[in-house]
Please model this.
Amino acid sequence: MVTQVRLKELFSYDPLTGVFVNLVSSGTRRAGRQAGSKHNAGYVKLFIDGQSHLAHRMAHLYMTGTLPTDHMDHINHIRSDNRWQNLRVVGRTENNRNKRLSKRSRTGLPGVVWRGRDDCWHVRAYVDGKQFHLGNFHDFFEAVCRRKSSDIHLGYHTNNGSPA
Model:
């Protein structure tokens, strides 16, 4: 288990840029250079004593002295943006209320889809992992308004559904 003391021995962290810098040379790692590499899912990972750690979780440890007990949300949906102001500790539900727009979305909005067989816009939202039908609308604007008002009512983050 990595500690804040050990982390600060190996790296400096700039909360304004979200960048970790190596303080110690080791193997191919050189002191003074930016630390970490991109994970295949887009997150930055740091190697500490032979183990891989996600940089956003290490940023929390660096700043607070504790590892986050829950999920770490990248508010702007950019997984490599580890600026302190862009990170927040949230529960699973809250984390799911700040998702980027799916690349498969045809409407540009989460939860609003065209149902050709019904010739209308179908609107839905998720609460505690369960899908709820919010209505069918012939007018796209009405469908969008219904989804946006439910987002506010259900406590979705204002960034929910925005592209990364």
